[in-house]
């Protein structure tokens, strides 16, 4: 659905603003992938800090080992970003609002794609494991 999405978003922006078309008018183009692996045996995230920029498109690819059920959350980021979709095994969830959490009941990978819209430091964490090693920060500039 990426091509369809890019065309629908890009076309109106180009009509409305010639500057936007030359600059960063297509928010869904050239995504940057952020990878996160969750090791629940050692209680460790592969990455604990991501530096992001507002107005850029990111795909957060989260892989869980399935050893322990948990939910990944980042309430402040999700409140301060435009969320495009959540994809699980080629099944797409298109959002038009906030995402509460991404729960892994088993091993697997999902992605959530978004555009940060407001600078700030936003924590991400596995609910209930924040103080046991499963937390990190999105630094959005
Ligand atoms: Cu569940």
UniProtKB/TrEMBL annotation:
Keywords: Signal. The keyword Signal applies. Residues 1-23 form the signal peptide. It comes from the Bacteria. This is Copper-binding protein. It comes from Pelagibacterium nitratireducens. The lineage of its organism: Bacteria, Pseudomonadati, Pseudomonadota, Alphaproteobacteria, Hyphomicrobiales.
């Amino acid at each position: 659905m990426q091509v369809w999405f890019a065309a629908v978003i890009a076309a109106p922006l180009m009509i409305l603003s010639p500057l936007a078309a030359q600059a960063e008018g297509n928010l869904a183009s050239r995504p940057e992938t952020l990878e996160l692996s969750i090791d629940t045996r050692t209680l460790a995230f592969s990455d604990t800090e991501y530096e992001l920029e507002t107005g850029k498109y990111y795909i957060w690819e989260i892989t869980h080992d399935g050893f322990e059920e948990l939910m990944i959350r980042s309430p402040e980021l999700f409140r301060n970003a435009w969320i495009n979709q959540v994809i699980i095994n080629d099944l797409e969830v298109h959002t038009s609002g906030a995402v509460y959490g991404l729960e892994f009941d088993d091993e697997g990978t999902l992605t959530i794609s978004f555009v940060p819209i407001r600078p700030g430091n936003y924590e991400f964490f596995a609910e209930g494991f924040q103080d046991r090693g499963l937390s990190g920060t999105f630094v959005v500039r």
